[in-house]
From TrEMBL:
UniProt domain ABC transporter: residue ranges: 5-248
Gene3D superfamilies noted in UniProt: P-loop containing nucleotide triphosphate hydrolases
GO molecular function: ABC-type phosphonate transporter activity; ATP binding; ATP hydrolysis activity
Organism from which the protein derives: Tritonibacter litoralis
Cellular component terms per the entry's GO annotation: membrane
Source taxonomy: Bacteria, Pseudomonadati, Pseudomonadota, Alphaproteobacteria, Rhodobacterales
UniProt name for this protein: Phosphonate ABC transporter ATP-binding protein
Pfam entry (one): ABC_tran
InterPro entries, sorted: AAA+_ATPase, ABC_transporter-like_ATP-bd, ABC_transporter-like_CS, ABC_transpr_PhnC, MetN_ABC_transporter-like, P-loop_NTPase
Keywords (A to Z) from UniProt: ATP-binding, Cell membrane, Membrane, Nucleotide-binding, Translocase, Transport
Length: 267
C-alpha cells in the first residue's frame, strides 16, 4: 500500500524564532523532492521534524493513516526505520569496517542484547553486500570507514539507510562538503534507488543546478515558510531571485564559484 507523507500547519519554534512556520505539504509516494533555500530558511529543521528527531511546536505530520507526531516508543523507532535519515556528516563509526557500518542500519530489527553484541545473520550480511554493490563499494567492504574519501563515506551512509528497507529517505545536505565528481556519484545513487525501488526521497540541496537536474519537484523555503513548490522548469531566474534575494543570490553564486574553483585545484 502506498501512502502520502503529509504536513498540516506544521511549525517549530526556538525561543521567539520560527524555524518552520505553518508549513503544509503533501509528498506523494515515489517522488524525488529537492528542498532549497538560504541558510537558516528551515530546510534542516523540516527534515528533522519528518524523522521525529525533533517535535513540532504545533501542527501534525501523517503518513497515510499513521499520525507520525503521536508515535512513541517502539512505534517511533519503527518510523525512524521506515523514514531513513542521511546526514551531511556521514554518521559512520570510523574504526569499524564498511560492511559493519552498513549492518548497523539493521540494529532496529534486533533485541538489545543482539544489538550490543553486533550479531547479524547471514541474510543481513548478504543484504548489506547487495547494498554496497549498488553503490559500487564492494571492494571497500572490509576497509575501515575512516580511511575512505568523503564521497565514499556518504555512499556508505546511503547503503546503511538502504538496508533499513525504508519507505522514505531523507538526506540533509548530503553533497555540501563534496567535490563535483563525488557529489554526482552520491546524487546518482539516490536517484537510482528512487527509480528502481520506488522509495520517496527528500533531499536538502545548496546548488540550484543539482536540484534542477535530479528533482521531480522542488520546494523552496524562505524564513521558515514554503515560498515555491513546483517543477524545475517552473523555477525561473525571477523566482530564484525572489527566493534568495539579490544579496543572497550574489552570495550564493560566489559560494558556488568558490567551491568549483577549489575542486579544480589539485590537492
Amino acid at each position: 500500500m502506498t501512502s502520502a507523507l503529509t504536513l498540516t500547519n506544521v511549525s517549530r519554534q526556538f525561543g521567539e524564532t520560527y524555524a518552520v512556520d505553518n508549513v503544509s505539504l503533501s509528498i506523494e509516494p515515489g517522488q524525488f523532492v529537492g528542498v532549497i533555500g538560504r541558510s537558516g530558511a528551515g530546510k534542516s529543521t523540516m527534515l528533522r521534524l519528518l524523522n521525529r528527531l525533533i517535535d513540532p511546536t504545533s501542527g501534525s505530520i501523517s503518513f497515510g493513516e499513521t499520525e507520525v507526531t503521536a508515535l512513541k516508543g517502539k512505534a517511533l523507532r519503527q518510523w525512524r526505520r521506515d523514514c531513513a535519515m542521511i546526514f551531511q556528516q556521514f554518521n559512520l563509526v570510523d574504526r569499524l569496517d564498511v560492511l559493519t557500518n552498513v549492518l548497523i542500519g539493521r540494529l532496529a530489527e534486533h533485541s538489545f542484547l543482539s544489538s550490543m553484541a553486533m550479531q547479524f545473520t547471514d541474510e543481513e550480511r548478504a543484504m548489506a553486500i547487495r547494498a554496497l554493490d549498488r553503490l559500487d563499494l564492494v571492494p571497500q567492504a572490509l576497509q575501515r570507514a575512516g580511511t575512505l574519501s568523503g564521497g565514499q563515506q556518504q555512499r556508505v551512509a546511503i547503503a546503511k539507510a538502504l538496508v533499513q528497507q525504508p519507505r522514505i529517505m531523507l538526506a540533509d545536505e548530503p553533497i555540501a562538503s563534496l567535490d563535483p565528481a563525488n557529489a554526482t556519484l552520491v546524487m546518482d545513487g539516490l536517484k537510482t534507488i528512487n527509480r528502481e525501488d520506488g522509495i520517496t526521497v527528500l533531499v536538502n540541496l545548496h546548488t540550484l543546478d543539482t536540484a534542477r537536474a535530479y528533482c521531480d519537484r522542488i520546494i523552496a523555503m524562505r524564513q521558515g515558510r514554503v515560498f515555491f513548490d513546483g517543477t524545475a522548469a517552473q523555477l525561473t531566474d525571477d523566482v530564484v531571485r525572489d527566493i534568495y534575494g539579490i544579496e543572497g543570490l550574489r552570495d550564493f553564486n560566489a559560494a558556488v564559484t568558490s567551491t568549483a574553483v577549489r575542486s579544480a585545484v589539485p590537492a
